[in-house]
Amino acid sequence: MTKKMIPTVATVLFCALALAFTLFSTPAEAAPKKVRLSYVEWSETVAATNMVKTVIQEKLGMECEIIPMTADKMWASVAAGVVDGMVAAWLPTTHGHFYEDYKDRVEDLGPNLTGTQIGLVVPDITVGRQTASSGQRNESYIKAESIADLKKYADKFHRRIIGIDPEAGIMEKTRQALREYGLYNYELVKGSEISMTAELSNAIRKQKWIVVTGWEPHWMFARWKLKFLDDPKNVFGGEEKIHTIVREGLKEDMPDVYKFLDAFKWNTEELEQLMIWIDEDDGMYPGEKALRYMRFHEEQVNAWLK
Fold first, then answer.
1. CA 168 to centroid of chain Cα atoms
2. pLDDT, tens only, 133-178
């Protein structure tokens, strides 16, 4: 290269500025829109959110980002328009206090799944043989049938209820249950879904008494025989539904996404199938499992997009 061909500093700066101007002066409308969804890292929410993400990307051809956060931030982010929506609102009980706070700043598209339940859960497993010689089922090694029984069996349960992340709606309801049932000597152990199910697994394996915060659908009900403790004071409410909540203005900004989210509905068995696939330790990501589900249920997915 000759001396004349060596670019001056001014030339280099000019080219850099020209490139920057070209990149950043492109109209915003020309950039493809990205769908952003918030979710909490609970099994059913991971499955549902990855299902929705996969359909948006594979069928609508739009990029979709899913962002994990706590339940309170999940609601707040939709209300603020930071994300476009979520498919994880447990109503009317579990997330009822969040709904009251944000109902005027979000749009409720209604249930995407019905027949859910929350409460306190114990193993329903017998010691040794499941049935007696008479053919009748042997009793569970845990005798408690109701939340009120926790006071009577406090020593057996070591005065502990194994919970999940403290911001979860079920944790708020459990704190209320401790007051309503007079369980003042119990500790509600904070943790995560992973730590809760790990303790449950260990207790079942060693046939120890344990009570956990639980909800259905969840893969643990497919893996172990469990039961909800009766709740005569109805602290945890009756049947719950999981709703789809979106930000204001989504219908105008992204009509195809809005239409799909409004139509997205499935049942407990379908959700649990995907949850079990995701829980399998085979090195595949949740999104890959959702793609597998989509291929096996093409007719159902197409119905969501009509």
1. 10
2. 444 557 889 999 999 999 999 999 999 999 999 988 899 999 999 9
Task: Give how far Cα 190 sits from Cα of 86, 101, 174, 196, 295, Å.
Answer: 24, 24, 11, 9, 38
Range of the domain at 105: 31-117+239-304
- pLDDT digits over 95-110, tens only? 999 999 999 999 999 9
Task: Supply 145's token pair.
Answer: 């049938």
- Asked if residue 104 belongs to a domain, the reply is yes
Torsion over CA: 155, 158, 164, 165 (sign): positive
Q: Which amino acid is at 86?
A: M
In a domain, 25, yes or no: no
Among residues 179, 201, 228, the one where a domain terminates is 228
Residue 103 included in any domain: yes
- Secondary structure in 3-state letters for the chain: CCHHHCCCHHHHHHHHHHHHHHHHCCCHHHCCCEEEEEECCCHHHHHHHHHHHHHHHHCCCCEEEEEECCHHHHHHHHHCCCCCEEEEEEECCCCHHHHHHHCCCEEEEEEEEEEEEEEEEEECCECCCCECCCCCECCECCCCCECCHHHHCCCCCCCEEECCCCCCHHHHHHHHHHHHCCCCCCEEECCCHHHHHHHHHHHHHHCCCCCEEEEECCHHHHHCCEEECECCCCCCCCCEEEEEEEECCHHHHCHHHHHHHHHCCCCHHHHHHHHHHHHCCCCCCHHHHHHHHHHHCHHHHHHHCC
Looking at 228, 263, 295, the residue that finishes a domain is: 228
Co-location of 141 and 205 in the same domain: yes
Helix axes 268-279, 43-58, angle to 10 degrees: 90
How many domains is the chain partitioned into structurally?
2
Domain check: are 72 and 109 in the same one? Answer: yes
Q: Is 19 domain-assigned?
A: no
The CATH number linked to 257 is 3.40.190.10
